[in-house]
Amino acid sequence: MAVEFVGMIRTADTSEIRPPSGPAVDRDYLRRFAQAHEEAGFDRVLIGYHSWDADGFAVASYAAAHTERLGFLLAHRPGFVAPSLAARKLATVDQLIGGRLAVHVISGASDTEQRRDGDYADKAARYRRTDEYLDVVRRVWASDEPVDHEGEFYRLAGARSEVKPVNGALPIYFGGSSADAYRVGGKHADVFALWGEPLAETAEQIAAVRKAATEHGRNPDDLGFSVSFRPIIGRTDAEAWERAHGILNTITSRTSGESGAMLAFPAAERGVGSQRLLDAAGRGEVHDRALWTAPARATGAAGNSTALVGSPETVAEALLDYVDIGVTTLLIRGYEPLEDVVDWGRDLLPLVRQELAKR
């Protein structure tokens, strides 16, 4: 029984508790951060997409040049380049880094953020565009002949690519919690990504996406599921909770709930996933074995923001609870980004894998 561990890298040492203090692109830090994930035993690292951040294609290429085994999950928003060009760009990077690339497709929750890069399509249109975009990308990868396409958003005549991904196509991860996300992700995703909700709600979302996959004629058992958390560990549960409350105090000192400067977009434009995290926080601060929702409430759930708190043994058991309901990928990132990766590689990932090896 195998479970994929995915971390997250950035080009600078910053988080909700660490304000930026150096250059936006710190090559030495990026190199050390990627190498730390490889040494810790992570399978992949996510490279996020923001309207103000470094270009992910370049980041993946640089980090891959300084690692040997680590895979890269490149966040990508359809709509800013043509799908035929995206197919070539993704395939080129995958060839150059030895088949270690996957793509995480995000349609975009916030109108405000999309408009920063010139995209004025509404959210429903963005999902329709993503559906069409992925159809074209897959056709370009699969075909040795020129591809013609005429749809709602794209019109292409004779699109082709001499370069293909190493394995013919890249794994497609897909994020979202809305009905549109289930519909489009159920059609296209190899792995459907969710934020860290309580177990019961996560199981409901898994069932909804599997249903959508079935409606597209897919075998739902072929679809993987990712869940994202912010683990906070200590030598004991008590030590972990002491650390967790210190982190929360720092977060709340930097932001004031929904109006905080750390939010990437207006509260009115939260996606369904963010609202679901806030709903969970409204029902209680601690859920299940170790799920802590207070950081989501403090940041307005502007990103994956729920934590798992406890000793390495407690957090490992909590992660395995999600595996038991069908999760295949565990995406974890820290509030002390580089230091947490080192700790998890020593204390957390081995525990999860040892238990899985027994099953």
TrEMBL record:
The keyword DNA repair does not apply. Gene3D superfamilies: Luciferase-like domain. It comes from Saccharopolyspora ipomoeae. Its EC number is 1.-.-.-. The lineage of its organism: Bacteria, Bacillati, Actinomycetota, Actinomycetes, Pseudonocardiales. One of its GO terms (molecular function) is oxidoreductase activity. InterPro entries: Luciferase-like_dom, Luciferase-like_sf, SsuD_RutA_monooxygenase. Residues 16-328 form the Luciferase-like domain. The keyword Flavoprotein applies. It is an enzyme of class 1 (oxidoreductase). It holds the Pfam family Bac_luciferase. Keywords: Flavoprotein, FMN, Monooxygenase, Oxidoreductase. This is LLM class flavin-dependent oxidoreductase. CDD domains: Alkanesulfonate_monoxygenase.
